[in-house]
Amino acid sequence: PTRRSSDLMVGNISGLANKMYPLNEVVTLTAETIDGSTFINWTENNNEISTSPVYSFTVKGNRKLIANFEKKVIISLPDAGNLKNALQNTLSITSLVLTGNIDARDIEYIRDNFPSLISLNLNGSHLKSYTGNSGTNRAVYYYPENEMPESSFNDPSTGIHSYIQSLVLPEDLDSIGRYAFTECSALKSIILPANLKSIETWA
What is the dihedral of CA 182, 173, 127, 101, to 10 degrees? Predict the structure, then answer.
């Protein structure tokens, strides 16, 4: 069995012994939450097999079980650019709901410092303009208001990209900047705002 998200601080699995299990032996596994996480379910081959943290089965052959955990954080920023000051223990966060005022510095911080993030909800946030060299792309100095910043989830200079699977964009977003989601192969669901006007090249 393995655990998801990938960060080991999200949860543990107990009940495994370092041995070969004989056929027909009953095995009981327990998914243990840590650091404020929540157990979601056990899956095998992308199919849910149990929502109980304690799962027992009779050995009939090789199995690949995955214990899925979630650590959800909801935070509101009154001032754009301050996410790194408001939230520093980011390694085990799998779900983030962000409201208030944000800018390209906050998106850069999410991209580069949330390795376990699967779900990001920006619906209640407002993207402010930003001028400076601490945004999502070091070659860009100005980021317009209400535009998803260029290279939001893919840094062309380092190759760092996000592994988020679900994304809700700000409700008042006008535009999506270039290369915003390039290389984000894990992204399965994205909710676009109703009044979105433009999507730039290679977004």
Answer: -130
* 3-state SS assignment for residue 147: strand
Polymer length of the chain: 203
- Contact, 126 vs 79, CB < 8 A? no
Secondary structure element (H or E) that encloses residue 113, with its range: helix 104-113
CB-hemisphere CA count at 13 Å for 199? 10
- In the chain, the amino acid numbered 124 is G
- Judge whether 1 and 21 are in contact, CB under 8 Å: no
**Nearest C-alpha neighbor of 9 from the set 35, 30, 48, 28:** 35
Q: 177: closest CA among 197, 157, 153, 147?
A: 147
Burial class of residue 113, CB neighbours in 10 A (0-12, 13-18, 19+): middle
**Residue 63: closest CA among 82, 75, 50, 76:** 50
pLDDT in tens, 65-121: 999 888 899 999 999 999 999 998 898 899 999 999 999 999 999 999 998 899 999
Q: Are 146 and 171 contacting, i.e. CB atoms less than 8 angstroms apart?
A: no
